[in-house]
Amino acid sequence: MTNPTGTTPAQPSQPFDLTQYGIPADAARRMEENADGAPGAVFTSDLSVNEFLLVREAGFRPLGLVMGSSIYHIGAQFSSYNQSMELGVLTQAMYHARELAMSRMRAEAFALGADGIVGVRLKVIGMQLGEHIAEFTAIGTAVKAESGNEARGGWRDTTGGPFTSDLSGQDFWTLIEAGYAPLGLVMGTCVYHMAQQGLRQMWRNMGQNAEIPQYTQGIYDARELAMGRMQAEARNHRAEGIVGVQLTEHNHVWGYHTTEFFAIGTAVRPLREDHRITPPNMVVPLT
User: Residue 187, SS3?
Assistant: First the structure.
């Protein structure tokens, strides 16, 4: 993943000390005890039973629940009340906090020996530790390709780390069956301040059906910035496209006229040229 400055978070590429990523010793010990091939390893997963079985059907087995967390203080940035503009300091904060959580989740998956992470969820939760403090979390199920389930170029992403995907187990199975592989979660964000209406405009619009141009243009611009950044990440992954895109709006702690537009989806690449899947069969009950 890349952020607006073009930097790429460090990814683990060899045996390493998990604590260097800010991961607690207890979590590092759990990864070691349940790593692929460890005696007595027991996997954990937040997949539903149906999702678990479909992931196995797609040729992957779960290794364990992996997560990353970052409690982050979001700074302040001042803007003119009558000017629509992106708040770059806040945009960068939202990017950096999510990247910290994502990199720690991927480090845990790498320690387990995983090829990827499915069902990833990113959350932002306000904390009672102080004003403008929030916890950013990333959590998903680390999986490993089973023997005989080789993919052209391997299953890992372009950095050599585990792929990430927020697709459900059902959608993940359908994607693989259709001849595509996930490369990684790609995202774009934009924290934007919308100019307020002037008194003259408020009086003119009172009781009238009328568009408010600065709001329309500001929201349009913010969404386009978020979408463009998500697509730029996909190009960096050398992806063919992005599936399962979600475009959301979050006010967080900034009050009126300032909001975050967040775009996220799974970048994919083709495994083969034939993208047909087996048609479903009709099942007739015997009773």
Answer: strand
- Tens digit of each residue's pLDDT (9 = 90 or more) over 247-278: 988 776 556 677 889 999 999 999 988 877 77
Residue among 194, 198, 241, 245 at smallest CA distance from 221: 194
Torsion angle of the four alpha carbons 124, 126, 131, 136, in this order, in degrees rounded to the nearest 10 = -30
The CA angle 37-42-44, to the nearest 5 degrees, is 120
Q: Would you tell me how many other CB atoms lie within 10 Å of the CB of residue 270?
A: 15
Which residue ranges make up each domain of the chain?
21-270
pLDDT tens-digit map of 120-167: 999 887 754 556 677 889 999 999 999 888 877 789 888 888 999 999
Q: Are 127 and 158 in contact (CB under 8 A)?
A: no
Dihedral (C-alpha) 158, 160, 161, 167: value to the nearest 10 degrees?
40
Structure tokens given for 111: 């320690």
Name 160's Cβ contacts closer than 8 Å, sequence gap at least 6. 11, 13
Q: What is the pTM of this model?
A: 0.81
116-126 and 180-193 strand pairing: unpaired
* Cβ-based neighbours of 120, under 8 Å, separated by 6 or more: 105, 138, 139, 140, 164, 165, 166, 185
Whether the Cβ atoms of residue 39 and residue 45 lie closer than 8 Å to each other:
no
Q: Which amino acid is at 48?
A: S
The yes/no answer on whether domain 21-270 falls in CATH 3.30.70.120 is no
Distance CA 41, CA 233 (A): 35
Per the CB < 8 A criterion, the answer to whether 127 and 71 are in contact is yes
Paired tokens of 150? 């080789």
Distance CA 280, CA 230 (A): 34
Spatial neighbors of 126 by CB under 8 A, at least 6 apart, are 133, 134, 252, 253
